[in-house]
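Milestone 3.1: sequence recovery, worked example.
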């Protein structure tokens, strides 16, 4: 597995060296350019057919940090679904992008019951995080501790995280109600991700409009009981 990581990381380095530009990726994207995979360069969003992405957080909105609190203003570093600029009302405008990845953080059983098309499944609680994972050797998650200060369970935890959640693309995250996404975004922020490119698009429970039917895969007849394991990883002592 370590050899696999070395090869993948080498490939990423080679790909990064193939493009040379006077402006940084962040500067180009801020001007409305998106990556064109075919030419390994940049084109304006209007030319690529991709809708220009809004800022990840809508700071004109307000939200409740918890059910008993008062409404407060959304900020750029607020990861709550209520503050996201992309949600169940407009996500369809941003689907199918080649510069983005789409990830559903629910457990496999919930995902197979109903999910949005082209969202890949990476179970958060089953594989990414459990608060006790770093102290309980029977748990297999990549991280323990608090999600704002995640503790790596394996020497390879960060390598796996970077492979599962691309740092080079925009990331759309969803779960059942948006809560797991906040925890996942806390981990990504702690690991140095550019959070302006990561969207909490809410939960599957919010995607009920008939207009979204073409994007929903509903297979209630399929039932899966998944068991998650890890092999050939080195636990941190």
């Amino acid at each position: 597995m370590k050899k696999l990581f070395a090869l993948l990381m080498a490939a990423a380095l080679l790909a990064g060296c193939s493009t040379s530009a006077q402006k940084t990726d962040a500067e180009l994207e801020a001007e409305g350019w998106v990556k064109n995979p075919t030419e390994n360069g940049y084109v304006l969003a209007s030319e690529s057919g991709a809708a220009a992405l809004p800022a990840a957080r809508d700071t004109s909105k307000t939200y409740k940090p918890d059910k008993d609190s008062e409404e407060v203003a959304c900020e750029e570093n607020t990861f709550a679904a209520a503050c996201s600029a992309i949600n169940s009302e407009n996500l369809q405008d941003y689907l199918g992008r080649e510069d983005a990845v789409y990830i559903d953080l629910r457990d496999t059983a919930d995902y197979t019951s109903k999910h949005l098309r082209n969202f890949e499944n990476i179970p958060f609680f089953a594989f990414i995080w459990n608060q006790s994972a770093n102290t309980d050797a029977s748990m297999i998650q990549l991280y323990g501790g608090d999600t704002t200060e995640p503790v790596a369970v394996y020497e390879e935890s960060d390598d796996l995280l970077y492979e599962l959640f691309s740092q080079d693309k925009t990331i759309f995250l969803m779960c059942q109600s948006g809560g797991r996404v906040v925890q996942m975004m806390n981990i990504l922020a702690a690991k140095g991700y550019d959070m302006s490119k990561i969207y909490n698009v809410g939960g599957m429970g919010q995607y009920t409009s008939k207009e979204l039917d073409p994007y929903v895969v509903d297979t209630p007849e399929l039932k899966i009981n998944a068991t998650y394991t890890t092999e050939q990883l080195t636990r941190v002592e």
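The chain has two domains: 1-49, 53-218. Helices lie at 2-17, 25-30, 45-48, 108-113, 124-128, 157-164, 179-190.
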